[in-house]
C-alpha cells in the first residue's frame, strides 16, 4: 500500500482528497499547515506528497525546499495543488524540484492518473538504484578482499623468514624482507585509513554537514607541495611533478586539502606512464577555489566518467592496478561538504584533467 501525504490548509478539501485517495487503496496522512507537513514527511517518509502552494505560515515552496534539503525526504516526489495556473508559478515550482503541478479543482481521474505516473516513475528509479547497489556490493566484496589479502599474504610469513635469516646471520636478506614487511604494512594501513575516512564522509554527507573555505595558518601552497611531493616519491616520479600554485592562505581544512591532493594525484600517477608530466594548478578564480590535477595518461571515455562510483575500477582486467577504486568518489563526497564539485575532462589515450572547484563564500540554501 502506497502512502500519500496531503498538505492542504483547506480542511474541507483535505477531507475530500483523503476520502478519494483512501477509496483507491492509498494510505493517507494529512497536515493543514506546512510545518506539520514537513514533520510528517520526515517521520513517515510517504511515497508521494500533495501540497498546496498558498498556505499561511510555511507555504508550499518553503515545504518543497525543506523536503529537498533533508536527506530523509529529498527523494519524495511532490505535486503542487493550487488555484494558480500562471506559467511563472508553474516554472517556479518545477525549478524548485516539484514533479508536477495540478490546478484546483482537480478531477479524480486527473489526480489518480498523475499519482500512478509519478509513483511508477519513482519505483522504476528505486529498482535501478537497487540494481546499482547490488552491483556495487559485489564490487566492494571482491575489491576489498583483494586489497586486504594482498598485503596480508606478504606480511604473514615474514616473521618466520626473519627468524631464519637472523639465526643464520643473513643480515642482507633480513633487511630486504624487513623493508618488504614495512611496505606491505603501509599499504594495509593506507587501505584501512581510506575506508575509515570514506565512511566518515558518507556519515557527514547524510547529516548534511557543511564546511567552507577558511584562511589557514599554513600557506595553502605549502600544504599542497608537501603532500604532492610525498605522493610523487611513493611512485618514484618526483621528476614528473609540476606545481603552479597561487600564493594564498585560503583553502579547505588542511586535512581535507591533503586528502584532495592525495587522491587526485594518486589517480594521475596510477594512470599515466613514468616520464610523463603530472601537474597541479591552484587558481583563485572569481568566487572559486579551483584545484586542477592533470596527466597525459590513458584517459577515460565519456561513459566511464559518468559511471564513477565508489569501489569501481575500469579495465582492471586489462591493466594491472592497485587500490580500492575509492579515489574519485571520495573526492566528490569531500567536495560535497563545501558544496563544491568535481569536474573531469578526459580523452582516451591523451590524458585526464580533474578540477576540484569549491566556492570561496558559503552557498545559501
Number of helices: 11
Report the C-alpha radius of gyration, rounded: 27 Å
CATH topology of the largest domain: Heat Shock Protein 90
Query: Could you estimate the helical fraction of the residues in percent?
Result: 40-55%
Low-pLDDT stretches: 309-324
Tally of strands: 12
Task: Note the main sheet.
Answer: 5 strands, parallel
Distance between the termini: 34 Å
Query: What is the string of SSEs from the N terminus onward?
Result: EHEHEHEHEHHHEHEEHEEHHEE
Question: Rough shape?
Answer: elongated
Portion in strands:
15-25%
CATH class of the largest domain: Alpha Beta
Q: Could you tell me the mean pLDDT?
A: 83
CATH superfamily of the largest domain: Histidine kinase-like ATPase, C-terminal domain
- Total domains: 3
Helix and strand composition category: alpha/beta
Assign the CATH architecture of the largest domain.
2-Layer Sandwich
Task: Please give the order of strands in the largest beta sheet.
Answer: 2-1-3-4-5
Amino acid at each position: 500500500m502506497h502512502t500519500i501525504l496531503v498538505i492542504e490548509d483547506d480542511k474541507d478539501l483535505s477531507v475530500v482528497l483523503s476520502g478519494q485517495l483512501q477509496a483507491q487503496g492509498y494510505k493517507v496522512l494529512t497536515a493543514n499547515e506546512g510545518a506539520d507537513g514537513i514533520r510528517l514527511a520526515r517521520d513517515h517518509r510517504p511515497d508521494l506528497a500533495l501540497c498546496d502552494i498558498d498556505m499561511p505560515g510555511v507555504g508550499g515552496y518553503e515545504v518543497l525546499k525543506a523536503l529537498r534539503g533533508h536527506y530523509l525526504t529529498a527523494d519524495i516526489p511532490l505535486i503542487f495543488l493550487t488555484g494558480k495556473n500562471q506559467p511563472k508559478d508553474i516554472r517556479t515550482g518545477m525549478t524548485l524540484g516539484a514533479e508536477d503541478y495540478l490546478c484546483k479543482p482537480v478531477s479524480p481521474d486527473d489526480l489518480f492518473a498523475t499519482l500512478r505516473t509519478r509513483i511508477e516513475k519513482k519505483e522504476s528509479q528505486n529498482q535501478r538504484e537497487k540494481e546499482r547497489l547490488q552491483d556495487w556490493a559485489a564490487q566492494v566484496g571482491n575489491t576489498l578482499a583483494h586489497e586486504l589479502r594482498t598485503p596480508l599474504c606478504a606480511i604473514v610469513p615474514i616473521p618466520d623468514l626473519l627468524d631464519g635469516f637472523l639465526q643464520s646471520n643473513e643480515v642482507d636478506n633480513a633487511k630486504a624482507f624487513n623493508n618488504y614487511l614495512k611496505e606491505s604494512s603501509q599499504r594495509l594501513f593506507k587501505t584501512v585509513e581510506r575506508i575509515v575516512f570514506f565512511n566518515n564522509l558518507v556519515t557527514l554527507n547524510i547529516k548534511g554537514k557543511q564546511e567552507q573555505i577558511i584562511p589557514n595558518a599554513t600557506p595553502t601552497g605549502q600544504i599542497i607541495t608537501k603532500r604532492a611531493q610525498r605522493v610523487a616519491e611513493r611512485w618514484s616520479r618526483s621528476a614528473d611533478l609540476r606545481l603552479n600554485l597561487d600564493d594564498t592562505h585560503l583553502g579547505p581544512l588542511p586535512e581535507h586539502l591533503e586528502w584532495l591532493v592525495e587522491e587526485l594525484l594518486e589517480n594521475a600517477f596510477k594512470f599515466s606512464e613514468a616520464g610523463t608530466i603530472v601537474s597541479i594548478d591552484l587558481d583563485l578564480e572569481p568566487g572559486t577555489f579551483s584545484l586542477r590535477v592533470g596527466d597525459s595518461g590513458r584517459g577515460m571515455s565519456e561513459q566511464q566518467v559518468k559511471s564513477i562510483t565508489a569501489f569501481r575500477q575500469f579495465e582492471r582486467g586489462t591493466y594491472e592496478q592497485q587500490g580500492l577504486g575509492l579515489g574519485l568518489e571520495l573526492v566528490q563526497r569531500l567536495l560535497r561538504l563545501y558544496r563544491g564539485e568535481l569536474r573531469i575532462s578526459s580523452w582516451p589515450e591523451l590524458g585526464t584533467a580533474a578540477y576540484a572547484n569549491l566556492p570561496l563564500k558559503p552557498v545559501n540554501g
